[in-house]
Amino acid sequence: MTTAINDKVILQNGVAMPWLGLGVFQVEDGSVVVNSVKDAIKNGYRSIDTAAIYDNEAGVGQGIREAIAEHGVTREKLFITSKVWNADLGYESTLAAFETSLNKLGLDYLDLYLIHWPVEGKYKDAWRALETLYKQGRVKAIGVSNFHVHHLQDLMKDAEIMPMVDQVEYHPMLAQHELRAFTREHNIQLEAWSPLMQGQLLDHPVLSSIASKHGKSVAQVIIRWDLQNGVVTIPKSIKESRIIENGNVFDFELSADEMAQIDALNEDKRVGPDPDNFDF
């Protein structure tokens, strides 16, 4: 059981990845994202997740640099993720996109680089580029995002290096049972984006009842459910108080019955696009 904010899971290649991180999807570049990153690191977070399409990598990089200067955290203690966007999928274009992201972030390497969406006919060439970057030591771990089981199976048929992470939409309404079982079987770490279903679950009566029993918020219960299911999670917030709250999930444990109650909420309901049917 994870017991502290700096606890990590060991990926299949031996790299240690924090169980909890800060996501910055739709966080405005500039002072907003800079302060979010700094607040997270100040309060014990060591993992920051961004992407080229978020258009805030420069601010994330500035936040990292300022946090290192102000809070005595070394770069080596941080775990920074970015993703290659759909328009850049391809071998040479992915290599170029990686350089652009790295320059915007102002970093020498990434800890994790992901293919953002499984664009048919393109993700295998992009994966070869990620393998090249991994072999060069430019990135510590490589993986994918929004890949269903059949996407993973297709990629793995030709991959020289197996994906280490699959970051997907995951919350009590979308429990991803088949994908969880497959990734567990193949030692691919599942990671949750939109773990709070963009706030749609915060008034749910079952979750509210469980939260009240523990003296916790619904958000904290959902994050705890993620962690106890062995899923890395990256809740987003731009408010320091909420960032602190989201990280305060290591002093309680959900019972087997409570976990089952939350599991039973699954409706295979998405707030984001279906990876089998997206158009961007």
Let me know the average pLDDT: 97
The CATH topology comes to TIM Barrel
Instruction: Give unreliable regions as ranges.
Output: none
Can you tell me the overall shape?
globular
Give the CATH class. Alpha Beta
CATH superfamily: NADP-dependent oxidoreductase domain
What is the spatial order of strands in the main beta sheet?
3-4-5-6-7-8-9-10
CATH architecture: Alpha-Beta Barrel
- Based on CA atoms alone, the radius of gyration comes out at 18 Å
Organism: Paenibacillus catalpae
Domain NADP-dependent oxidoreductase: 31-267
Keywords: NADP, Oxidoreductase
Site (Lowers pKa of active site Tyr): 83
Question: Layout of SSEs?
Answer:
Layout: E1 8-10, E2 16-18, E3 22-23, H1 31-42, E4 47-49, H2 57-71, E5 79-84, H3 91-105, E6 110-115, H4 123-135, E7 139-145, H5 149-158, E8 165-169, H6 177-185, E9 189-193, H7 205-214, H8 218-228, E10 232-233, H9 240-247, H10 256-263
Parallel strand pairs: 3-4, 4-5, 5-6, 6-7, 7-8, 8-9, 9-10
Antiparallel strand pairs: 1-2
Describe this structure in words.
- This protein is α/β, with parallel strands linked by helices and 280 residues long.
- The protein has one domain (8-263): Alpha-Beta Barrel (TIM Barrel).
- The chain is 40% helix and 15% strand.
- The chain has helices at residues 31-42, 57-71, 91-105, 123-135, 149-158, 177-185, 205-214, 218-228, 240-247, 256-263; strands spanning 8-10, 16-18, 22-23, 47-49, 79-84, 110-115, 139-145, 165-169, 189-193, 232-233.
- The strands form two sheets. The chain has an eight-stranded parallel sheet with strand order 3-4-5-6-7-8-9-10.
- Helix 2 packs across helix 3 (91-105).
- The model has no long low-confidence stretch (mean pLDDT 97).
